[in-house]
Structure prediction request, 478 residues.
Amino acid sequence: MQQELDNHWRRWLNPHRRRPGSSRPPLGPGSQQRTAIERDYDRVLFSTPVRRMADKTQVFPLDRSDSVRTRLTHSHEVANLARSVGIDLVFNQRVAAGLPEALRDIPALLATVGLAHDLGNPPFGHQGEDAIARWFELNRAGVLDADPGLTGGMKADFLRFEGNAQTLRLLTKLQLINDDYGLNLTLATLAALVKYPTPSDCLDPSRVTHKKHGYFQSEQALMDEVWAATGLQSGQRHPLTWIMEACDDIAYSVLDAEDAVKKGLLSFSDTIAFLRHEAPDDPVLAAVCDAAASEHQGYRRERLSPDELNDISMQTFRIRAIGALMEAIGEVFIESLPAMAEGRFERELVAASKAGPLLSALKACNWQHAYRHKSVLRVELTGLTVIHGLMDAFWYAITRREDPDDPASPRATPLAGYIYQRISENYRRVFESPGNPMPIRYREAQLLTDMISGMTDSFAVSLFEEFREVGFVPSTRA
Prediction:
């Protein structure tokens, strides 16, 4: 069995790149140079989309507190957790023991996909995804249904817009170096990046891996290439993706609870009381809460303000909770690896572990006290208004051109020309490329979502105001 798994790992850790002639031979044991997969992390880290995440919503849109997490801090936390699991797997659990390069490549790959997993998310968090999909539904007749050449899958890419799919597109098509390979990441990294290995017209809510889509119709050929190169079947998730997903769940569930207390939406004691009530008989949850509550009592003897007491107590809780959750997913991963190799595993790692009730209770607490708080809902409404207004403006500019069959033809009005020039140049280049094989209407809709997804929260708000100042109103589209 070990030899068979090592053979799988050789393909799962495929270090080659898609650009012809760009791959280097694997490094020998003890080499101090970076491996190809280690270089993937650096390519992502220094890319522009990573910097933009500093001004993208995690939970609380447009929050003015520097201590509340952004999408960037969340992504760094997921990368750190994932890398830590990888280090434990290769050094303590002896995963892929027959491959010396795995000692470096598994932790590096997990750090890379942890850092990159949210790059495609639009402004205003998951509310932004919903706003984009809603715009296409409201304008379906004049946008998607107007072209009989669009397949059901092509339409579903937009009606079910998904930030996960945008992440793959961003890194492989839009973040240009000098050709059409994007950052030209290794095949191993691309495979592990795809959380949902299915297109938008093949969803299956009963399966964890197919409840959303992880790539657009425009990237189908790319995914076929990635699967073939890594030994995965079509629709099969890379084993390390399970760890990335689990670390994402752990990070946002634990740390969103910490942020909710930091914002004063509830206290440390409220959080502990909610968790105990949610799963009163769970031993893992009880151990975490007991340890945090005990230390909380010690902190109460110090001369701390209520805010300081809440803050330090939640830090202690965070350490205890993350420790318990991380230990649990490592155990389940080792047990489940043979099933993952055969594509038979279909449960979230944490849910399948002894720490499942703790995570479920945290999610319930966050939903009730943070995600549905009136301050969050109020700004979500602002995000919806801004995104729909920007989509109206950009759609006008994208489609109002002199030659409908030539995407690069001049815009038909000065206003359309002004707004069109506000679209990022590299996005326009991909849209206008004669080699783009997708239908014109699909390309137009994709340029629209490329631009919206690439914006930060504050840039979206400022650009919305700018377009209003230059005279764009809905009647302009007539």
Q: What stands out?
A: The radius of gyration is 23 Å.
